[in-house]
Here is the input.
Amino acid sequence: NVPYLEAHCATSYKMGILFFGGYTHGHYQNTLYLFDPKNSKVIIKHNGGKIDCPPARISSACVEYLNKLYVFGGHTQDGQYLNDLWIFDLEKNTWSEFVNKNSENLDPLYTIPVGRAGHSMNLYNIAVEVPFLNEIGQIEKNDIFKYNSKTNLMNDFGRNIISNQVLNQKN
Here is the structure.
């Protein structure tokens, strides 16, 4: 069985469900599980640890696309809000961390979101770009960022899009 987990991220994968991170028995996790509901089996895809994988976290977001799991952000047990993007190759069972290759913009705050937890992550634009809408601690953020898996670039999708649409609806 999948262990009791709180604040993990989960996404569908083929005929199963991937679970990553979360909190169980007083500890933050970075284990990746695949649950096969047809056979009621749980497979540990990656047992976590401290080397070559994301740090243990809660409240991250994840999505699967073309046999790769994308995990962004979350909150560590020592209180750090994360802004890292990790990619797990589901065929090779290996993690890699995204490194921003956007040389046009030297300020990472405008190309990579600040650390966050409790945000969402979804596929967009023919399942290539991954936008996130987020919340940082008690401060709600009003931004949407996208990661393009083809170009390996992350950037701001449109600052204050949500506020502008809400204001227009009220007028």
